[in-house]
């Protein structure tokens, strides 16, 4: 049997478009409420009030606040990876590795740091919510590790492998990134974002630097 698609038109818009817009409003509301009140201190009523939508409309899109949190997290992660890909595509493929890592890290950090709400969701509010959320975070970290390893391998000469192999190198990098952005996001006042970019770029450069002969 084929998949049914609701093509009815309401107010000049298809049901699919209206649902996508409604979901986007809830995602934006979750970003504001979870980063402001904290995930633990928020409610579905808070989300609906921020979105200007009804409780029934919330449950038409999400089963729970946790589902909204995961959906929001995935949007941020997808945007971050897209930002890194775009930044690398702008660079010459033959550019020095240090220039490539600087461009990639600037894109990655700014994708969350230019809107501190995003940094707080990914690196503060997602931590310790539930075993399901921790599993989801671990799965996304694994995808990032694969992406980082593939990107480094693609742009390295001579089949470069970092000391300890990619599994340890990417684990070290992602651990450092998580702790750095968590500290930055929780600081008041926050250090300049350029300082955060400089530190994480130095970490990645150290991990992917070709050892001297």
What do you see in this structure?
This protein has helices spanning 15-37, 44-51, 55-61, 65-90, 97-113, 116-125, 131-154, 165-186, 193-208; strands at residues 9-10, 13-14. With 213 residues, the chain is mainly alpha-helical. The protein folds into 2 domains: 1-62, Homeodomain-like (Arc Repressor Mutant, subunit A, Orthogonal Bundle); 66-208, Tetracycline Repressor, domain 2 (Orthogonal Bundle). Helix 6 packs across helix 8 (165-186), helix 7 (131-154) packs across helix 8 (165-186) and helix 8 (165-186) packs antiparallel against helix 9 (193-208). It starts with 8 loop residues before the first strand and ends in a 5-residue tail after the last helix. The mean pLDDT is 88.
Q: How many domains would you count in the coordinates?
A: 2
Output the radius of gyration: 20 Å
Number of strands: 2
CATH architecture of the largest domain: Orthogonal Bundle
Q: What is the number of helices?
A: 9
Question: Which geometry do the CA atoms define?
Answer: elongated
Task: State the fourth-level CATH superfamily of the largest domain.
Answer: Tetracycline Repressor, domain 2
**Overall pLDDT:** 88
Structural class: mainly alpha
Distance between the termini: 62 Å
* Strand order across the largest sheet: 1-2
* Strand residue percentage: under 5%
Could you give a short account of the major beta sheet?
2 strands, antiparallel
Order of helices and strands: EEHHHHHHHHH
| Multimer state | single chain
Task: Tell me roughly what share of residues is in helical segments.
Answer: over 70%
CATH class wording of the largest domain: Mainly Alpha
CATH fold name of the largest domain: Tetracycline Repressor, domain 2
Low-confidence stretches: none
């Amino acid at each position: 049997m084929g998949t049914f698609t609701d093509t009815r038109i309401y107010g000049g818009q298809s049901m699919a478009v209206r649902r996508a817009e409604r979901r986007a409003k809830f995602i934006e509301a979750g970003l504001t409420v979870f980063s402001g009140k904290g995930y633990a201190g928020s409610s579905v009523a808070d989300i609906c009030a921020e979105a200007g939508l009804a409780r029934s409309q919330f449950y038409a899109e999400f089963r729970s606040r946790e589902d909204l949190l995961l959906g929001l997290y995935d949007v941020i992660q997808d945007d971050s990876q897209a930002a890194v890909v775009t930044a690398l595509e702008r660079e010459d493929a033959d550019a020095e590795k240090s220039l490539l890592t600087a461009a990639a890290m600037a894109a990655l950090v700014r994708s969350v740091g230019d809107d501190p709400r995003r940094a707080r969701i990914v690196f503060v509010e997602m931590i310790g919510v539930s075993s399901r959320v921790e599993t989801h975070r671990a799965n996304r970290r694994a995808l990032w590790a694969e992406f980082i390893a593939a990107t480094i391998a693609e742009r390295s000469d001579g089949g470069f492998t970092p000391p300890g192999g990619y599994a340890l190198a990417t684990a070290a990098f992602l651990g450092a990134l998580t702790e750095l952005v968590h500290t930055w996001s929780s600081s008041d006042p926050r250090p300049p974002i350029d300082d955060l970019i400089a530190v994480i770029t130095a970490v990645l450069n150290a991990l992917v630097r070709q050892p001297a002969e």
